[in-house]
Write a structure and sequence with these properties.
The chain starts with a helix and ends with a helix. The chain has two domains: about 160 residues, Rossmann fold, CATH 3.40.50.2000; about 180 residues, Glycogen Phosphorylase B (Rossmann fold, 3-Layer(aba) Sandwich), CATH 3.40.50. The radius of gyration is 22 Å and the shape is globular. Helix 7 crosses helix 12. A six-stranded parallel β-sheet has the order 9-8-7-10-11-12, sandwiched between helices. Strands 3-4-5-6 form a four-stranded parallel β-sheet. The chain is built from 14 helices and twelve strands.
């Protein structure tokens, strides 16, 4: 987003505040970095730097705003989800309290809150029902690398590199309980041995060993492939080679792998909960993520060519609201409205 704003709206002046100067910013911007005191600076000291810069708008990109309000700048904050409230058992008590405190401060301080989905907006309103919170929904986009077209040779190299089957369903997510790998495995176990195999790619988490053990004990090694820590540059090709992707998460504020898949031209089967239908629309099949039989039924459906072709027809229209240009226009419009007040 930062690079996009600087490229599409070069008439503005940009200052980036980070605990260390980011390497991925490819265009000129003033970098404000306080690496040695990052925690307290971000919460209490940053307002002084905002004032010194004479900023018109300060945008906190990850659910955080300074505790002391700047003199002039309007405050915008983006909140992606409230997973720490939906699934408190997945967090250490101290982390949960920090997230709650930061989020509540951001909601009370912001001139405008950006929620990345209607689901997150509803969750925020439920979190603070007595407060009138100015919330706008602006969707996320995904890395431009997922829009790129890949030649046959490039795809073939990735297939060979990871030993992928000729056809497969791809699941991209960290191995953790909320992502629901085990119910997918139970679904696969209930299907015939010749059903389409599944490739699970993601960072190791607290369920990785359990997933491995389930695969081994149920003799699923020929039907399920595990890939750890896939480099970002390989992910678009994994999506492009897949027949479909499966995203069985128990809850998401947005569900970026769903969008990455659709942008890569690959339809989705996903959970009928939280924001999934909002993001995938008619380009997906939906199931109950807590019911392996429901998951298995969707996997069987996706093996049908007519069903697959039907979903593919919806993808181009479905991804339009999530284009980088569209999202940058919405952010710029919001900033301009705040500046005019």
């Amino acid at each position: 987003m930062v690079n996009g704003m600087m490229a599409q709206y070069p008439e503005h002046e940009y200052s980036l505040f980070d605990k260390k100067a980011p390497k991925h910013i490819g265009l000129p911007a003033q970098i404000v970095s306080k690496r040695n005191t990052a925690l307290f600076w971000r919460q209490f000291g940053i307002s002084k730097d905002i004032n010194n810069k004479g900023l018109d708008v300060y945008h906190g990109l990850s659910a955080e705003l300074p505790y002391s309000r700047p003199k002039k700048a309007k405050l915008v904050v983006t909140i992606h989800d409230l997973i720490f409230k939906k699934f408190p058992e997945y967090y250490k008590t101290v982390d949960r309290l920090i997230y709650a405190h930061k989020t509540e401060n951001a909601l009370r301080s912001a001139d405008v809150v950006i929620a990345t989905s209607k689901q997150t907006k509803a969750d925020l309103q439920n979190m603070m029902p007595d407060d009138e919170i100015p919330i706008e929904v602006i969707y996320q986009d995904c890395d431009p690398i997922f829009y790129a077209h890949h030649g046959e040779s490039g795809l073939a190299k990735v297939v060979k590199k990871y030993g992928l089957p000729e056809t497969y369903i791809l699941m991209v997510s960290k191995f953790e309980k909320r992502k629901n790998h085990l119910n997918v495995l139970k679904a696969i176990l209930s299907l015939p041995n010749d059903s389409i195999p599944v490739v699970m790619a993601g960072k190791k988490g607290d369920t990785y060993d359990e997933v491995q053990a389930f695969i081994a004990s149920n003799k699923l090694t020929s039907r399920v492939t595990l890939i750890e820590d896939v480099p970002t540059q390989d992910l678009p090709k994994l999506y492009s080679c897949a027949t479909a992707t499966i995203f069985p998460s128990l809850y998401e504020g947005f569900g970026i792998p769903v969008l990455e898949s659709l942008v890569s031209g690959t339809p989705v089967i996903t959970s009928a909960n939280s924001c999934m239908e909002e993001i995938a629309g008619d380009a997906a099949l939906y199931f109950n993520p807590e019911d392996p039989e429901s998951i298995a039924y969707s996997i069987k459906q996706i093996e049908d060519t007519m069903t697959l072709d039907g979903l593919n027809l919806y993808i181009p229209k479905r991804i339009e609201p999530f284009s980088n240009t569209n999202i940058l226009v919405q952010h710029n419009s919001l900033y301009m409205r705040l500046c005019s007040k």
